[in-house]
Design brief:
Elements: E1 5-8, E2 27-32, E3 40-45, E4 54-60, E5 74-77, E6 92-96, E7 100-105, E8 114-117, E9 122-128, E10 131-135, E11 138-142, E12 146-150, E13 155-160, E14 166-172, E15 212-221, E16 224-232, E17 237-242, E18 247-250, E19 269-273, E20 276-281, E21 284-285, E22 299-300, E23 305-312, E24 325-329, E25 334-335, H1 341-345, E26 350-351, E27 354-360, E28 365-366
Parallel strand pairs: 8-15
Antiparallel strand pairs: 1-17, 2-3, 3-17, 4-16, 5-24, 6-7, 6-28, 7-14, 8-13, 9-12, 9-14, 10-11, 10-13, 12-18, 15-16, 19-20, 20-27, 21-26, 22-25, 23-24, 23-27
Length: 385
């Protein structure tokens, strides 16, 4: 988010002496984007963040991709994938391109390390579970329906407080922000935006750790996973201020935009990233023109791949879809309501569907791991029977 925020102790000027009670200096770190021309925050550490004891590569980040085949509509049942691992190592990547990767994870193990994505921002959508996003900039409690927006370079750990946890993870190659058309020239969300700053939750409590030991920070960089070992806790920040920080927004606070006739998908847009957008389909009133057809039209995604992650409810234009389904409708071929769904929608007043959509403007590739959970008949599910 693009507004100023601060937590903890900071000096009254940037880059001046800021001392501890024993007279030693705190260590100032500028954490910013786009060199020094993007948004940034300034952090004050108990220890120099450069003091690494050991560094090594763990593995490549992505799993192998499928061999190219016919361009077709795809349906994957993410709930059939096996739960396990922690919130990072347990991720199953389904769809990947140069700009974004889409994964799910149902972790059963706690994180005994810390994680930082240095390739781009992340959005973690909480499908199930409660807990806390712990970061060096403070903690944010989470619950089902929350989008956790984690900027590049943020060291974090998910502290899970309930047994069943399930996340949709959107890994970006760059910055994720609210759409520009919702904001004025100063970055403030305007009245026509489907959410505003009051809906955004920022880090509320800064936990400063001053303890020694062995602490591992795993870092995604250059599409590889690396380990860095420190002899002090990475959450040693005593204060910070700026415009770069993690934040949370609940899909339940998204105010849907409706009309007398069908509104196109951009009205559901929630975030924008490099060459992709994230949209929220939430419970809403249907179109109110006397001849309205609430179901969407058949359409071709020209220069766009469409991914839908179904959270809950009855998605009115689809058959054979269940909670946790992931559909891919690639550019080049039309798609739309399943047979009978157009007529069924006429006269309906409201939908209770809940889904997250990712539209990408470069083609997505399917991982080999995703093929295990694919419905091979989905491409033909529009045939009249």
């Amino acid at each position: 988010m693009s507004f100023y925020y601060r937590l903890g102790k900071i000096p009254n000027k940037r880059h001046i002496q800021f001392r501890r009670e024993d007279g030693s200096l705190y260590y100032e770190q500028v954490m910013g984007t786009k060199g020094f021309s993007g948004i940034q925050s300034i952090l004050y550490h108990l220890h120099p963040p450069t003091q690494v004891e050991e560094a090594y590569k763990i593995r490549d980040w992505y799993r192998p991709m499928e061999e190219s085949g016919a361009n077709r509509h795809r349906h994957f049942a993410s709930f059939e994938s096996v739960a396990g691992g922690d919130p990072i190592e347990g991720r199953l990547h389904w769809l990947v391109n140069e700009d974004v990767a889409i994964a799910t994870v149902s972790p059963t193990e706690p994180m005994d390390y810390f994680f930082r994505n240095s390739d781009g921002d992340e959005v973690i959508f909480v499908h199930e579970g409660e807990g806390s996003l712990e970061t060096q900039l403070g903690d944010i409690p989470y619950q089902p329906g929350d989008y956790l927006v984690i900027p590049v370079g943020t060291t974090y750990r998910l502290q899970m407080k309930t047994k069943n946890q399930r996340f949709l993870v959107i890994e970006s190659s760059g910055e994720i922000t609210p759409p520009k058309r919702y904001r004025n020239e100063f970055g403030q969300l305007m009245e026509h935006s489907p959410y505003c700053e009051r809906d955004v939750r920022l880090p509320s409590q800064l936990q400063t750790h001053d303890e020694g030991g062995t602490f591992e920070v795993r870092v995604k960089a250059r599409d590889q996973l690396h380990a860095y070992i420190y002899h002090f806790h990475p959450f040693d920040v005593v204060g910070w201020d700026g415009f770069l920080y993690p934040w949370a927004f609940s899909i339940h606070d998204f105010e849907p935009i409706t009309g007398s006739i069908h509104q196109p998908p951009p009205v559901h847009q929630t975030f924008t990233g490099p060459n992709f957008v994230i949209c929220s389909f939430v419970p809403r009133m249907y179109d109110y023109h006397p001849l309205a057809i609430p179901a969407p039209y058949f359409h071709s995604n020209v220069n766009s791949d469409e991914v839908l992650y179904y959270v809950k409810g009855n998605f009115m234009s689809r058959k054979g879809i269940s909670e946790g389904s992931i559909t891919l409708h690639p550019s080049g071929i039309p798609h739309g309501p399943h047979p009978g769904k157009v007529e069924d929608s006429i006269g309906k007043k409201r939908t209770e569907e809940l889904a997250v959509m990712v539209d990408t403007f470069r083609p997505l590739r399917v991982t080999q791991a995703a093929l295990i959970y694919e419905d091979p008949e989905y491409m033909y599910s529009w045939r009249q029977k």
